[in-house]
Amino acid sequence: MTTSNSCSVLKDVVAYVDVWSSDKTANYSKPFIQQLQEMGAQVSKTFNKQVTHVVFNNGHSATWRKAKKSGVRLVSVLWVGRCYDDGVRVDEELYPALNDESNPVLKNKKHRCMQPKDSPERTPENDRRMKKKLDKMMKDLAPKQPLVTDVSPIIIDEESGIVYSPALKRSDYMAQRLKDMKEKRENLSPTASQMAESRSPTGLKPSLGSTPTILKLMYDQSDDDSSASVAEPGCSPDKEEGRTQVDVTDHGRLGKRHRKGPEKPWLSPCQLTEDSAALELQKNSVSALSHTLESRGNECTVAAGLTELPSEDEENHNKQVSLSLQKMVNKTKAMRTLVMTSMPTEKQHTVVQVVKALGGFSIVDRVCESTTHVVSGGHRRTLNILLGIARGCWILSFEWILWCLEQRQWIPEEPYELSDHFPAAQMCRLQRHLSAGEHQQDLFQGQPAMFVSQHSQPPTQSLVELIQLCGGTVCKTVRQAGICIGRYSGRRPEGSRILSEQWVLARVYHKLDDRLYSIYQTMVLFFFENYTGVEIVIYGDIPKNKENVIYLSNHQCTADWIIADMLAIRQSAIGHVRYVLKDGLKWLPLYGWYFSQHGGIYVKRSAKFNEGAMKKKLLSQTQSGAPMYLVIFPEGTRYNPELKNVIADSQAFATKEGLAVLRHTLTPRMKASHIAIETMKGHLDAVYDVTVAYEGTLDASGQRRPAPSMPEFLCKECPRVHIHFDRVDIKEIPPEPVFFRRWLHERFEIKDRLLTDFYESEDADKICRFPGEGKPSPLNLSKTIPSVMILGGLTLPLLLTENGRKLYVRTWVFGTLLGWLEHNREQLLPLSFLDSSFTMGVDWIGFGYAAAIAFGGFMGYKRKASVMSLMAGLVFGGLSAYGAYNISNDPKDIKVSLFASGVLSLVMGMRYKKSGKILPAGLMSGLSLLMVFRLLLLIMV
């Protein structure tokens, strides 16, 4: 449709739009409203008498009945699309609206929009109270006025900086000053460098009569001396306010400067020149210098005088001025800059005003070498965010600016760092501070040279900078490149690859995320391997080079997850470890959400296995080039010799399917493994077939006992772990589901024979070991202790500061609920609460969190805090105990969780009740078990 006649196609139409999805959970009216308005139609928000057309699809029954009764034309969305495409008004009879009233399910189903409302965010522009409060705070936060003494207008700081005081009535003062100088033959006050000499250890103090300085410094009366140097986005530096030019006057001659044009007051900018060597300071640099010094509150005015310098002091004076100005230039270079991203205009104005008032920063549009802070108004992964992470900058929320405004000073950044949304930012910032020289990422060091297309989006220059910051090599011609980034239609060398710009951004994110995960998991291995002193014996040769693999292992206990990390760290691939997890584990506070963000996949072991979601997640990982070390336990649940019924069911299933019966493992399930291998076949190198056995799991009678859980492992109940390793090339695995199932079961038959030899060998020398030669593989302490120190240092601010403790508690409270919303945003249906599989899983723990908190707050409000504490603790404890049992399969966890949660909640509730804080008593009772559950997570996860 052409633009010329687009506004007149439906000029006589007044439409009411009621368009919903087939399940009546999503309102799709907005895009059709936009199309109607583009064609000149009026769109009414309500169904009134002026409406001539109703666009209807799965809408409300009341709308349908009213339209039928009033005789308004009912049309489908196809009519709108046809009019929009053809550019003419199409006959409404060709596209009538339909209403399926015969279906009782759809007829009685209510419209429940699960989309967020379009309510505008509260900003100073649309909220009068907020604007009034901000205006008052900005008015109170006026820049500090210069401090001027009654004796001299010269104030010199300790770092030889010069700041000019605009508040003094200079003309009157200088007239009196010159008169006194003539009478008493005094010279000017000493310079900063001379003051430094006067403080020297030698004790030599030059007299005022020999002070080697004649500086003629003037201000432009029109300049705003109290304003900070802030380059607002979109403005050129030459147009900024608050600029000052400073040059050095000729020290060997005396004379007046003649200026063209009208005479200005003597406080106007002039140039300072040096006799031996001219030192020119650019306007921008001096402006930044002026801003830096003003922000520190040091102010100085240097008066002009007419006296002769002694000839013997001229050379020393020149050196002193050069040194002083060089220090000033160095300060200018060290000026910090701040960048805003994902921020609406009104928030940008707030940031600019706060920076002007508090000083210390200059605002720029893009992250550069001097950038130390990136303030984000949202959680989008913008180019400035990635550049900030690569340079090790602070990535902060807008709340930091508001709290700085509230406190009227720059406050600590840690509580406002967006580490939850950009986990790698904290690590990269710490690495930058710890590095001796300029910090350099190594993300793209192993990649061939890259050519960035001129048509790329983000811009070419920005992508080139990001690649180089991450250790990549960029070439100017495509002939030299192994990778071409962006759209390129010309000829390219054979073997070179064309990749989307998003590949660079996604790869940067995954690389930084893998580093963060590596630091955390390495810290975990410090406790499970270095602290426990367990001996790891490996049968087989682990490849030294990193590979993209799938890790298939037998499953006996929660410590099996740690064994995968133990093998990965020996290949320097611990950051690449990702898991296929059972769906219930997504309820682990924070961990459940983060494992998914890191590339983990949650699957249901029932018939409701979501094959499409798993494929989508794996494809997104492979397309971004993420390294893969995918851990899968095909058995689906743990082998526990005490659970006879589980073993019997597994063996019965194998007999039914005509498969070999396994004694020391369960019958493997093939669906998740097959989907993973087939989806990533072009990305994978091999499959690691791993068999794990724990020494110390045979009792005195020779019967196999359950493998140690994570708490038992940490209590040093397992002296030695035996790992049998076998590498299978990806080309050897059959793709057909029938043959793959047979292949997988044969691999578990091999595992079963190995475990039979391990537990039931008649040779005393061969029992509790696998066939073949086993080699002990100790883990060097140098690989784990740095992570412990880093994470320990990052945790201390959370425990020692008030804001840190608040952030700590809030994160754990909302971690599970947010994780549940993240994983179920596509399945949020009104009737999902009645799903039987839903009620049988650990999904109830999330609702237990919400219910316990709400119940605790209500009962605390009713002044029954102490009794309620015990009740809420027991109820909440039961839910979490069930979750703990689901995780560890250990009945003892139920007793421990119930007892600990009840006692802890009772103590905390009574403590707050005694202090008179009734509502906190109820809330703390509801939240108390989060702490218990937190302790369990620290041990088990």
TrEMBL record:
Residues 118-128, 237-253 have a biased composition (Basic and acidic residues). Keywords: Membrane, Transmembrane, Transmembrane helix. GO terms for cellular component: membrane. This is Microcephalin isoform X1. Coiled coil: none annotated. SMART domains: BRCT, PlsC. The keyword Heme does not apply. Residues 109-129, 182-208, 222-269 are annotated as: Disordered. Belongs to the TMEM14 family. Residues 188-201 have a biased composition (Polar residues). One of its GO terms (molecular function) is acyltransferase activity. It is found in: Membrane. Gene3D superfamilies: 6.10.250.1330, BRCT domain, Transmembrane protein 14-like. Its main location: membrane. One of its GO terms (biological process) is mitotic cell cycle. The chain crosses the membrane at residues 844-861, 868-888, 919-940. Residues 5-97, 327-418 form the BRCT domain.
